[in-house]
Amino acid sequence: MTSKRRTFAAGAAVAAAVVLAACSSGGGSSATGSSASGEAAKSPAQIVQDAQQATGNAASVHIKGAGTSGGTAVRVDIVAGHGRGGGTISESGETFQTVLDGKTVYLQADAATWTKVSNASVAGLLAGKWIKTTTDNQDFRDLAGLLDISQFVSNFSQPSGTLTKGSVVTVNGVSVVPVTDHGSDGGILYVANSGTPYIIALGATGSDRGTIYFDEYGTAKVPPVPTGAIDLNALQTKSSS
């Protein structure tokens, strides 16, 4: 099995980058008005810390949105759980269904996508079928950081600039407080102002653009583990022999 240099792994990495680029945490401060309440009454660093803990403790969450990274268009519609996750990831029109089960990664795509990322022969062999590999495969390990909510939260980077918080606004019907990283690789984190301080949205800034939305906390259903998947590692070994 041969493949072009730009494989699905690149798409997965880009998708993860779009999401994680907007997740900035660490120090920083801004003035707090006397009338502020809930998360809005806290420092930017504390708001981010609360959001990380609350989101990381959720049983599951639905994550959906679109953006660009390095000029590449990416769209995600996934559910992230603990050691489990899955959904749809698209990059430049190449779309894969994904499932994460522990260290095992499952992928499925149509003939058009396989032809783009590999060749017509591979497309004829794999179109519509599930394949599997593991997160030990460096081409696919980024998926764990996207589909496992625990790893997603742990991968939050340090801020690239000063953190400030804005006035309370509404996103998808939820009252949120935005925290902005003003660095070159920064983004905007929207955290629920009252109740559990879940992440409600992430907005990329700078050269990367897009917004990712979070909902269905604790109720989002992870896709089932596929059966009869083709072992990608065994397939690659066979094709190289």
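[next item in queue]
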Amino acid sequence: MRFKLITTFCAFLAILGLVVTQAKATTWDLNTSNVNLGISGNFASVDISVTGNTATFTIDANQALLGGGDNFGIDKFFFNTTLSGITASDFSAVSGWDVRTSQNASDFGLFEFLYKGTGSTRMDPFTFTITDSSITSALDFYDANSSGFHFVAHIAGFSDLNGNTSAFFGDGAPGAPGAPVPEPGTIVLLGAGLLGLGLFGRKRMKG
């Protein structure tokens, strides 16, 4: 009886971790620039978490890598979606920003949506939400364009890098985009459940 309870609990942890990993919070790194800045690394990150039918986007520029002053921040964010019913009215309102469709992100190609600010409304991080009954997962917004990119952010106001103080940043080289990274908590849940199942399975076989 005790063995069955422990096995059931471990299985529950594994399933819970898998479900949350697939559907709730995911982070991608933007590590490719449209210009040669003379440095490399993760220039920004895109985090999407889903609660109910609301997706919360947080785009965080890496000021420690790029440097920058008081007007450093993100003023454009491009992405696609696999969902056909998303419209501009589903976006949360951000003062000084507006939603545009079918926009080009420099060398990264065409994207379905652009949330655009101005030089005076730059943000770091930039956060907004999209609410629609069809939203179930962060992966609803992980949809590559024809050039192989999923997300692009324009960041401005950083230190002079090879003569550049602004640039577009995407999520990997064309044809080899970055893979989503589950939040650490979900990995722990999944790992604990699978480890527990393995250990107690071996113990039962030895017994």
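[queue empty]
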